[in-house]
Amino acid sequence: MMLHENEIPVDETLVRSLLEAQCPDWAGLPLAPAGAGTDNTMYRLGEELLVRLPRTAGHSGSLRKEQKWLPRLAPLLTCSVPEPVHTGAPTGAFPLAWSVYRWIEGDVAGPDTVRDWAAFGTDLAAVVRELHGIGLMGATRTGDLSWYRGGGLRACDDWIGRSFRDCRTAAGGAGLDFDTLEQLWRAALALPGSRAPHVWLHGDLKPTNLLVRDGGLHAVIDFGALSVGLPDAEHSTVWDLPHQARQAYWDAAGLDEATWTRARAWAVAVGVSGISYYDGTFPAFVAECRARLRSVLSDAAGRT
Fold first, then answer.
1. Using CB atoms within 10 A of its CB, is residue 304 exposed (0-12), middle (13-18) or buried (19+)?
2. What phi-psi label fits residue 35: left (phi over 0), alpha (psi between -120 and 50 degrees) or beta?
């Protein structure tokens, strides 16, 4: 499934050829699709490895970030995170860098895997607090580490406004109250900007990037959105979780009302922009965005 202009097609034959040329010791291992997100396509390699290939040249920087920074961050985090074990070189058939990682066993966070959502929310808040507490090691909000979600809301107002307009006519937006969602966005824009110091940000802590073992949070994966910036947007993915997880996260993180309001606005922004961009091409992701926006609306109604 192609999602972007200039996307590079990837299949098992291509991946096998890359392995044969650059990782001959692994080339004979079983290879099977292991999912595809908006930025990367994954293949499981044997029992212990994962091959990850960016969809476009614009997404290749995410793998370079992981290769550089995950080995430095991992020893400072108590949860499991991906371990890069090989950096693949560009070729004529696939002109981008690619990566091989250690496979992390676990299931995506969801109603069939999480035993106690309140405990899960508390544990997630602890992971975020731990990541945000790591020194920046000389990193600054520049280049690949300056992703938009670590900045201010106002810088995104123009294109989020266009996304709202798109959503009102998009099939994926049917039935959602975009008037209320836009009011929530505007309410956050009216607040003073955050004065919090810049921190390390995972950038996309949605359930598909949170792995569960024995009913509890075990690993955080996909650091492709790793960046340095303001922490507000980091909290936005709690609207992808049930209410009891969200409340426990709020309590454990000790967030003030203004931070929560800005985080909610980021949840709205990512939801509407996702529907706008992927409507008609990636129905599973549009469904995630719809669920997030419904959660925002339900939560907002309960707090009024």
1. exposed
2. left
Is 152 within 8 Å of 192 (Cβ atoms)? no
The DSSP symbol for 134 reads S
For the stretch 289-295, contacts whose Cβ atoms lie closer than 8 Å and that sit 24 or more positions apart, written own/partner, are 289/172, 290/172, 290/173, 290/176, 291/240, 292/239, 292/240, 292/267, 293/176, 293/181, 293/267, 293/268, 294/176, 295/239, 295/240, 295/243, 295/267
How far apart CA 12 and CA 80 sit, in angstroms, is 28
d(CA 127, CA 120): 11
User: Looking at this protein, which amino acid is placed at residue 283?
Assistant: P
Query: All domains of the chain, ordered by start, with CATH?
Result: 12-102 (3.30.200.20), 107-303 (3.90.1200.10)
The confidence score (pLDDT) of residue 232 equals 97
Reported as a single tens digit per residue, the pLDDT across 212-234 is 999 999 999 999 999 999 999 99
State pTM to two decimals. 0.93
What backbone phi and psi angles, to 5 degrees, belong to 203?
Answer: 95, -15
For residue 154, report the phi and psi dihedrals to the nearest 5 degrees: -60, -30
- Separation of alpha carbons 244 and 217, rounded Å: 15
**Residue 32: CA count within 13 A, CB half-sphere:** 6
pLDDT digits (tens, 9 = 90+) for 63-104: 888 999 999 999 999 999 999 999 999 999 999 999 999 999
**Residue 236 has what DSSP assignment?**
G
Q: Cβ atoms within 10 A of the Cβ of 116, count?
A: 14
φ, ψ for residue 144, nearest 5 deg: -65, -15
Residues in a beta bridge with 51: 43, 100
Using an 8 Å Cβ cutoff, are 84 and 101 in contact? yes
Q: Residues 51, 45: contact at Cβ < 8 Å? A: yes
